[in-house]
Amino acid sequence: MKLSIALATYNGEKYLQEQLDSLLAQTVQPDEVVISDDRSTDRTIEIAKEFQKRAPFDVIVHQNEQQKGFIKNFDKALSLTSGDLVFLCDQDDVWFEHKLETIRDTAIKHPEYSVYMNDALLTDGQLNQTDLTVQQQIQGLGRPLTQFITGCCAAIRRSHLDKVMPLPDDYPSHDGWIINLADALREKWIISDVLQLYRRHGNNTSNSTHGQLRKMTRFDTVKTMVRRIQTNGEEVSLRHDERKLQVLLKQEKNLVELMNASQRNHLLQYLKKKRQYVQFQHKRLKIRELPFHKRVLCIQKNYVNQNYDQILGYKSALRDLLGSKVSQRDGHE
Residue 84 gets which letter from DSSP? Predict the structure, then answer.
């Protein structure tokens, strides 16, 4: 099995060397590393070319003629790989020495899956380790591991890449597109092994609860619920979900042509559920505009009909009971 690593870089001189050193230390070496740089203005390219000279495996260093943004930069890196199993790699993490070996062995043992994902230990910018992992954070919030789409933890079979490439630039993220589709096809295998450090620092720390450096609990889910009630968070989330669904529907014909009968069936079921989900989300916003007594009856009816089961169950029902639709203007004040 040929192993490739797709590494997208941009102004990564501060952390890149540590990541490259961890690739050299792998117990099973990659067959190739592809580095695609998005017009860095620091020493990133110089570091990459020095790595190219000393690596005992093939290293391709590419620099875009013009800045493409992170999605198209990863798309370029992936397009230059030739491996049977391709690992997504961020410039600021550090891999444990047995990461490639563990995932390769898992892929050989479970060939029916197309994406393999390992757990990662959260650290700060100086690699000071916490006792928290990405999977633990997701589970601590009471959420399913379908929400585990951290790209730097993913390895992708060539057969899956052939379906998802080129990466659509109108989907919110490159890893979300690749991994969500694997979820839709029921082809994502989650490995509980912690196989890398996941560095969180000023340049990459987002509002994502999964990457926070403090322990996440169900109380944080409640706080998020309250915050969304107080703002237009539900509408923002709905627009995000609609955008993902629209891209999938636009790509549906091309995807189906590349799938076997089982995969097509799973994709169509997934699209049906996503349409129902978006439709019910629209309905929820209208429910919140109702007077309280009518709202209670409507929520009760939808709860009995199990419509809330496709979201967060009683938590979403409670959110609709307590919340009211907030105008776009109010949400940004």
Answer: S
